[in-house]
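Assemble and predict.
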Amino acid sequence: MLVISCIKQVPDTTQVRIDPVTNTLIREGIPFIINPYDSHALEESLRLKDRYGMRTVALSMGPPNTVATLKKAYAIGVDEAILLSDRCFGGADTLATSKVLSAAIERLDKQEKVGIVFCGKQTIDGDTAQVGPGIASRLGFSQLTLVDRIESIDFLRKRIKVRRKLEGRHEIVEAPLPVMITVVRELNRPRYPTVPMRIESEEKEIKVWDNSVLKLDAETVGLKGSPTWVSKIFSPERDQGEIIGDGINDPAGTANLLIDKLLSKDLLAV
Amino acid sequence: MEATRQIYWNMGHGVVIPMYILAFAAFGVLAWGFWQRLPIWRQGKALDRFDHYDERVKRMISEVFGQAKVFRVTEGGVFHSIFFWSFLILFAGTMLVMFQADFFTPVLKVNLLSGEFYKAFSLVLDIAGILAIVMLAGLFIRRFVTRPDGLEIVRDDYIVLQLLFAILITGFLIEGARMAATELQQNPALARFSPGGLLAGQLFTTLTPGTLLVTHKILWWLHFVLVLGFFCAVPYTKLRHILTTSANAFLAPFEAKGSIATINMEDDTVEQFGTATISDLSWKDIFDADACTSCKRCQERCPAYTTDKPLSPMKLIKQIGELAEGNPTGSLSETISQDAIWACTTCRACQDICPANIEHVNKILEMRRNLTLMEGAFPGDEVKTAVNNIEVNGNPFGLAFAARGDWAEGLQISVMEQDSDVDILYFVGCYASFDKRNQAIARNFITICNAAGVKVGILGKEEKCCGEPVRKLGNEYLYQMTAAENIELIKTYNVRKIVTTCPHCFNTLARDYKDLGLDIPVEHYTTYINTLLENNKLNLTPETFRYTYHDSCYLGRYMDIIEQPRSILTRAGGSITEMDKSGYDSFCCSAGGGRIIAEEKLGSKISEARIKMATDTGAPLLVSNCPFCMTMFEDGIKTGGAEDVLRVRDLAEIVAERIVA
Ligand code: SF4
Ligand code: SF4
């Protein structure tokens, strides 16, 4: 049974600034990283590999430089890394992206049954949280979002039980396989590549599937197949904050004021 | 009557043959004991420690006979050294008697041991014997009565101390018995040159001549057997250190302090990086365990140990020895514990003080290499994040690398990319680049350079972390990656000299980068400023202040820069009150060994301990020379509640304030 993790290479957004004139992201001098949530998805697929010996594949759709991120997936132990890259895939929104990823998963499913697809709960550059669910609904997989623990997998009955992390509560749910799972950070701690694995990964080849492989209608993918597009990016004006208390002379009292304030705005719960 | 004595008096020459046979048998036991250790040492990897042969021999002779390293710590050291010299004299004296009896007299027909020389010989040996007994008593009291903290009592202590006592006492008793029967009656004037024997002789004056002769014979054999016992015990007890510790003075490394083996990451044949089990160590690392004298000096200076972290450098060395002997395939990191391995700040206090030349730091580093490179382990998640940040952004904070040079905006400074014709390249480092407190110090350094007419360049956003913290955490891979980028970049500019404000960058660029092909003079700003002052390129208006000074590990112990910063501060008008631990004995701030990016979760805070030492001096100001120390001390002053009594400032800030316009 195959485990797939869908990963995306994103700019390190802690550093992304918006050009005030053109209202676009300034990407110059910004390093790329693997979308942090996806690194947890990747890690979980590797844990299943370690535990059950399942074969793992990392999938990523993106420009050719995404190989750097897929190399890292090899360096921590995935069996196969596939880049979905084609000019016509470019400029895709979540709908078009999930279409390409689904096509790739279907193709893989023909060789070996896909049991689980892991995605990060969202990306840090798009923040939509739609691609995972999009894949699930296209493929007709069960859909388990915001998972912070895999409780059990019953391969005979083909069922999986997970814990979902919701606002202020947890939910244990069970679903039939195959399943698409989106993961939160609490799920695991991603491993760090060892040097022997890094060295080994240097030799591993990253497969590139373009549209001649996936054979999708070019009108339904990429920019052309995307019903949504970004019309403008801007930093919202922020209201002037307020200074409460006197932190220098009365730190304890000020801390209390702050707590009250946070409580009153429902930002903190007792 | 001539001053001499009859050798083998009362024993007769008949004892010579059995005596030599037994002596050789004892040497055989000694040799056999060490021979059996050979396979244990040889489990380690090859390492050449027989180069520089002549210098090594010289070093061994001076360290063993000079005892300087032992003497460095007066407590215990004085007893040991004086005992050693006294025992050495007794040993040499005994050898001389042996040569006289069995070589000079029968072959050369001369008697050296007569006349004035004999008197002096007798006196010197007796005094040595008395001193040895007194020193031994001192060691005995220290071990069993006063028992300083952490000093263990093991089986060997009983055996060794009692054996040495018995040898010395029986030595005097034989002398006394002989003198009671001979000198005391025939030549009392001569007896005065044997004060020990004279005293012991009083015990025997009431015995009949017949009993006296028998008693003497028994004592002679007893003394002889004890001495044989001593030789036999050498390989099997702590006494082994006589040979192993001496050998270690020969075997100690010749490389610059802090040299770390640069792994060839390109070598495909390497399957194991770092040290996982005994066979990954070098033979010298295993031998070190046999050279350790359990003097605990390392342990009591270790900042990790003294703040209740699970690391003792002494114990670590012993654990290596135990594994090598009992369970060579056992995991070092499990035996020693990962927490202990990660707790080290690589401050080098242990290695610096060790009288046995044991190399602690690189062993710990190699174990970390195994953990990091082979297992992908970290001391904590915060470290993993910081390491990833270094990999992605070239700094542990995860801040935009493009902003690295922003601190220098508005200063009179060149960015190399635009203008590389500069006097010095200032390698800024991560902390001075991004950390507010340390940025101020970088700016002060620029002010100083400007005043001295030095044109400074920086790499700006092209600079990356020097790689020191990750290297010290064992991540040689990432270190070499970032180092290579820095080196390649620096080489594209025509750099004449590099100056750093960070002692960690300093060590790394000056020493570690050499292995990777950077060969440009590197200086720390303290010596650089000192030279500017000495050459009158820079002048200060002294303004008096009281201070205490913190020798950062990587400037003091690693680079021997101890006097220059103090001399600058004196010029600036400072009067110093030294802390309890300063100079080579300085106490780490806690940030070395990559600990700067790790949280200190175990034990108490090292920085607070150091701040306490600073406040104890009564000086209101602590001067530091390192951005890591600065960060730790600012923190330690707050958490340690010393805000009202102590301020920490960098040397550059003091100097910048006093520049003559
Ligand atoms: S280098 Fe410093 S911290 Fe590490 S073991 Fe030695 S004394 Fe302790
Ligand atoms: S390692 Fe060195 S300093 Fe530490 S106990 Fe052994 S001999 Fe003493």
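Residues B 292-298, 313-314, 317, 353-356, 358 surround iron/sulfur cluster (ligand 2) (CB under 6 Å).
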